[in-house]
Amino acid sequence: MRNFRRSAAALALGLAAVTTLSSAGPSSAAGGASSAAPAGIWSASLEGVHGVAPDATVRQIARVSVAGTGIRVRLGNPFGATPVVVRDAWLGRPIAPGSARLTPGSNHRLTFHGARTVTIAPGAQAVSDPVPITVPAQQDVAVSIYAPGSPVDDHTFPPFAYDPPASYIGTGGDTASAVSDDAFPGYPVIPGNTSSTAAGYHPGQTWWMDLITADLPAARGTLVTLGDSITDGYNAYGPPGQRWTDVLAERLDALPAGARLAVANAGISGNTVSVQPNPYDATGQCCGPPAPQRLDRDVLSVPGLRTVLLLEGTNDIGGGTYAPPASAAQVIDAMRTIADRVHARHVRIVASTILPMCNAAGSDKEATRLAVNAWIRTSHVFDAVLDFDAVLRDPADPTVMIADLRNDCYHPNAAGDQLIGRYIPLAAILG
Hints:
The relative contact order is 0.18. The chain is globular and about 60 Å long. Helix content is 22%, strand content 27%. The strands form six sheets. A six-stranded mixed β-sheet has the order 1-22-21-20-18-19, sandwiched between helices. It has a six-stranded antiparallel β-sheet with strand order 8-7-12-4-14-15, with no helix packed on it. Strands 2, 5, 10, 11 and 17 form a five-stranded antiparallel β-sheet that branches. It is of the alpha+beta class. The chain has helices at 2-14, 229-232, 244-253, 291-300, 314-318, 328-344, 364-378, 388-392, 414-423, 426-430; strands spanning 18-20, 39-43, 48-52, 57-63, 68-76, 84-86, 88-92, 108-109, 118-120, 125-127, 131-135, 140-146, 151-155, 166-169, 200-203, 206-207, 209-217, 222-227, 262-267, 305-311, 348-352, 384-386, 393-394, 397-401. The chain has two domains: 2-28 and 219-430, SGNH hydrolase (Rossmann fold), CATH 3.40.50.1110; 49-209.
């Protein structure tokens, strides 16, 4: 009970733990009208290439953050050494959340500049023509792609059970147009952090698809959350079973369409905020390029971008087998560079402090974390500061998160994600 009381106290503290550097309030636009401009309504940043696609269709499930009409899908091949050849691609509406079975009549063929197939060269992307359907807020779309023999540029992370993003890898052949789920078995369940091409259900794994946009979104623009595993949703197990970005998206959905922002999650587990070797993987394929190197693709290219929320630095400071712990100067320089590039595009950027990491008080790593957080709070580089550290740290030992709110030393659990998703002042996001 002592820790639950601390959790309540943390929320009360957190509601005051934001520094807003701009006096502008939320948009005064009212009513339910959609934005006139396209916007990103879902994303899952690609992190590496793992194997070759089998002679089977992958049906990917994505939950959009706001309603939208005229749905487009972006496919990418940033890491492959050979082209991705998409022979068939369809987009439909699942009959139930997370299901591979589609609502009759909802499945539409994807085309690319009018063509039914598309070849994506190494390092390139392809954006589909709009699909003339409307998808309600917080509902799923199913994107089915048949690209046998293509390099698998993917996104993988261990999610909470049976909640998108996810994919079903089919039993064989081109079944992209199928409404039924007969070719998309739900078992075996293959963990999302396992790069696998086996038939079955793959929670947390998607291939090639990194962005969904709406030509007519029920929002005035998009918030992109740029981060590592804490943003990706790593190990956010247990009730209520949502990432903090999903909690925030639901809160934004309660606003009028002319005031709200869609949420596009650009978190990648293991990612670093500074340009350096990845601490966990010598191949560089586990965790995406460092944030400054993927900023253009994963953030600045998103249609309707209005605000960036930056939460990174844990992996830099923690270090690992393949990279030593970063200095405060290294992390700060990277954050400043990202902020400068975002501001150069006349886009708002909000930053969060770095969460406790179980580094002993007085240790070099803890000194680095405290120095970076002090800079985030006082530098005035960002348009607003969200103090996630103050929300989740244990008052009795500020080097760790409150026990009831943490999964492990680096990651909140689902209750922790719920807390920070509810804490974020919407005015800090909306500007």
